[in-house]
Hints:
This protein has 621 residues and is mainly α. Among the domains are: 2-233, Serum Albumin, Chain A, Domain 1; 418-519, Serum Albumin, Chain A, Domain 1; 532-620, no CATH class. It has helices at 2-16, 39-50, 52-63, 69-88, 99-109, 113-116, 120-123, 127-137, 153-162, 166-177, 183-200, 206-237, 240-254, 260-279, 282-298, 300-303, 308-311, 317-324, 347-353, 355-369, 375-392, 398-402, 405-429, 432-446, 452-469, 475-491, 501-508, 514-519, 532-544, 551-565, 571-583, 600-603, 613-620. Helix 21 runs antiparallel to helix 23. The longest helix is centred in the middle third of the chain and has 32 residues, at 206-237. The protein starts with a helix and ends with a helix. One 2-acetamido-2-deoxy-beta-D-glucopyranose binds at residues 31, 36-37, 39, 42.
Amino acid sequence: MWLLFYLNMKHLNFIGFILFLFSLTGSLALPTKLQDTDDHFNATQKFINENTAYLTIIAVAQYVQEASFEEVDTLVKVMMDYKNRCLADKTLPECSKIANEDILDMICATEGLPQRHNFSHCCSKADVARRLCFLYNKKANIGFLPPFPTLDPEEKCQAYKNNESFLNLYMYEVARRNPFVFAPVLLTVAARFEEAATTCCEQQEKATCFQAKAAPITQYLKASSSYQGNICGVLMKFEPKVLNSINIATFSKKFPKIGFTDLTSLLEDVSSMYDVCCEGDVVQCIRSQSQVMNHICSKQDFISSKIKECCEKKIPDREDCIININKEDKPEDLSLRAAKFTDSENVCQERDANPDGFFAEFTHEYSRRNRELSIAEFLRVTKVYKDLLEDCCNKESPPDCYHHAEDKFNETTEKSFAMVRQECQRFQALEKDTLQLHYLVKFTKAAPQLSVEELVSLSEEMVEALASCCTLSEEFACVDDLAHLALGELCGVNENRTINTAVDHCCRTDFAFRRPCFEDLEDDTSYALPSVSALISALRADWCQAHSEDLQDKKYRFMVNLVKWMPEITSEERLCLFTKFTAAGEECSRVQDPEACFRPEYSGIKDSNIGDESKVANKKR
Ligand SMILES: *[C@@H]1O[C@H](CO)[C@@H](O)[C@H](O)[C@H]1NC(C)=O
Ligand SMILES: *[C@@H]1O[C@H](CO)[C@@H](O)[C@H](O)[C@H]1NC(C)=O
Ligand SMILES: *[C@@H]1O[C@H](CO)[C@@H](O)[C@H](O)[C@H]1NC(C)=O
Ligand SMILES: *[C@@H]1O[C@H](CO)[C@@H](O)[C@H](O)[C@H]1NC(C)=O
Ligand SMILES: *[C@@H]1O[C@H](CO)[C@@H](O)[C@H](O)[C@H]1NC(C)=O
């Protein structure tokens, strides 16, 4: 069920959070004169004023994830005072500051805060350098934070009723654990949580009610966070062209009616939106998103016939509605192929006159016509086309050469389809648990340097992607896009991670081809292995303790360690060890003799050429 939700979500993400860098209109409290007459601007400003406390919490908790709730709460009070002062008298000099600058000033001016949480070096910088420093300081990997606090439903309802800070606390806990998600998403999450609390606290079965209501909210948050983190990762690691082509593909697929010129002008707003939202400027992010929506609504006739009702709504419902609207139908007069790119005599001249514009238009024309494909696939086809022209335009008769472009496109697409088909077949064939182990082994072999938590979360994401996509009519696009997101998380948002040479290469080389690149990864052999006896004693320690923790986590940790420490044993041997260790559940005594798996007479593996533990150990050196 969540998959429907998820798919909608994806549109939300794709379209939703784009920004326009209004350098002039950044102040938190007052509208600038320029836009005083604009209804939407006023509505947006009102929305921002009403949500000042939340926005402050979001900004502070995302920038300084270590900060305590009390520290954040203090800053909220400072900000509310400031807002009230400026609303009363907007001519005060401090009231013309840009909101984000204001928040950073506040963070840096709080006594002891920069030292306590180790960002004094950011506060000693100014302007852009300071903003970037805070941005690079954000940590996607939140292992240093405690698990999300869970309250008993009765307690939760007590707190909700009696404590006006309760929702602020919730916002704080969510924001610091999702440092890259855009503010509008977090505001939506908080609104939905409040709704859930209102409903559930009046019911007898509070726990059941919370569970049912929390699942879609969590899913929405996870999906948004993943998508937006990815987009910001692209922005920070690749040329602006790459994000632009993602946006072209995304909008052209969803709104195929839009012409290239209108699209280009819309995407200026969209990419400015991503600039500010990715930077963590919560106020500008809301303004920019609203600006994009204004743009879309002002050109409905050229964009979509389906958004009329959405556009009549007010912020933030309008944004939500547009983002979640279904794909517009394909215009009937759209030819099957864009002849301009394969049949014309002048392809090479046109390319040379304006390469970026030319390939952008190609992406647009291809995406609006082949809407069953994934966003990544549109980018791959564009790359194939680009490479083909490099080749053809040097030939004597280029048209004869690029005339067959479509075959090349289909070749690439066919490869990607085959990959997804295989993944979905595996999904059909295996139990969920076994499937997760499959990905766990695969990811651990490619990147043994990653932590168990990260490996588990990656493989979980793959399994969830397959579970939600493999029965859909748009199976291909769904799997390919979601799997791409999982790899994006691995590759990192605000840092060029160094995991190992091969993985780093896949992350950095070509965004569109990340998936095939990862698919072809060899096992990493650079990883220094601890000894096998270390494995065995660690396992005994792990398994022979009282088990307060989820058995599943233990199993996954075991599998990861097994692959890390004995990468070259066969999958049968691995399975044997795994089964020996886990079949008995938590029975410590069964863990005493794992070496049996390497003795043919015990392992039950026919034709095993493996002797004992030491031989395995030798084999891998
Ligand atoms: C927008 O707000 C300003 C003052 O905040 C007000 O003077 C103006 O009339 C408002 N415009 C609209 C269209 O409501
Ligand atoms: C604080 O930052 C410095 C420099 O980035 C680093 O060396 C140090 O380990 C950090 N301290 C803490 C407690 O994180
Ligand atoms: C309300 O919740 C906050 C955050 O947990 C806590 O610090 C505060 O003491 C609570 N106030 C009351 C009256 O319970
Ligand atoms: C390429 O694939 C599309 C969609 O499967 C198909 O309609 C088209 O005929 C193929 N073109 C060529 C040249 O094979
Ligand atoms: C990552 O590397 C690219 C290419 O070398 C560079 O342009 C970019 O600034 C780096 N990004 C980060 C976050 O360090």
